[in-house]
């Protein structure tokens, strides 16, 4: 009895601890990517303009224009990309659906052969394929997953992708502009806030990687800071030349 209870507790502990992080990133990857893109691009744009010794009103206008242009560009690009991908997947699903309707036995045999290649015995593979092929929609889902590597019921939404890209980019791009909107007249508060935002984004990325939060944060801070420094130097150089 004690042995059975011990085994049950071990299985329970294994079940409770045997969980994995979302290795695809889920919503976190595109959201953080969009925010970091907005931060880096708008910070670099603003520091490049500020390097030309322009008025702070010009820097603010540049930041707001960069926010709007970048957010709309990200949204349009993401919508087109995801919509095109979805249309391609739906076209392939239509092909598979027609094949299942016209050649059900061939598709069933194809599925059995696939399971055989994965080590299932021929008799069992044929029986599994036969049972799975009874329902046309279930058969379509199985074939799509096995042959195309997709889930027909979990296709990405172009609208959701565009809206999330727009929002995350705009949020990131807003950080360098925010100090100016709150009354700042110098560049350094905008740079400081943007760098803190970059560190925070990098730390959040550590949730879906094996890196420590401080390493990811410092890496992103260094990359964003380098971009801002280079564009400021270029702005100073070209500003003096003009």
From TrEMBL:
One of its GO terms (biological process) is intracellular manganese ion homeostasis. Its main location: membrane. It is a multi-pass membrane protein. It is found in: Endomembrane system. InterPro entries: Ccc1_fam. Keywords: Membrane, Transmembrane, Transmembrane helix. The chain crosses the membrane at residues 160-181, 187-209, 221-241. GO terms for cellular component: endomembrane system. One of its GO terms (molecular function) is manganese ion transmembrane transporter activity. PANTHER family: FE(2+)/MN(2+) TRANSPORTER PCL1 (PTHR31851). This is VIT family protein. It comes from Streptomyces scabichelini.
């Amino acid at each position: 009895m004690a042995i059975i209870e011990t085994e049950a507790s071990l299985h329970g502990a294994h079940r409770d601890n045997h969980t994995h992080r979302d290795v695809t990133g889920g919503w976190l990857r595109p959201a953080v990517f969009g925010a970091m893109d907005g931060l880096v691009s708008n910070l670099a744009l603003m520091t490049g303009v500020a390097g030309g010794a322009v008025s702070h009103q010009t820097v603010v206008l540049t930041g707001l224009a960069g926010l709007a242009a970048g957010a709309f560009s990200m949204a349009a690009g993401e919508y087109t990309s995801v919509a095109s991908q979805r249309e391609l997947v739906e076209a392939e699903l239509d092909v598979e659906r027609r094949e299942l309707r016209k050649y059900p036995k061939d598709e069933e045999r194809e599925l059995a052969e696939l399971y055989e290649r994965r080590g299932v015995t021929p008799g069992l593979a044929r029986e599994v394929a036969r049972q799975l092929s009874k329902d046309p929609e279930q058969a379509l889902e199985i074939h799509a997953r096995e042959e195309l590597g997709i889930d027909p019921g979990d296709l990405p939404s172009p609208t959701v992708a565009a809206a999330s890209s727009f929002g995350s980019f705009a949020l990131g791009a807003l950080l360098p502009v925010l100090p100016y909107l709150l009354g700042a007249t110098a560049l350094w508060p905008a740079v400081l806030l943007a760098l803190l935002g970059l560190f925070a984004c990098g730390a959040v990325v550590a949730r879906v990687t094996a890196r420590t939060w401080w390493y990811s944060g410092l890496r992103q801070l260094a990359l964003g800071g380098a971009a801002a420094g280079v564009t400021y130097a270029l702005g100073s150089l070209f500003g003096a030349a003009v």
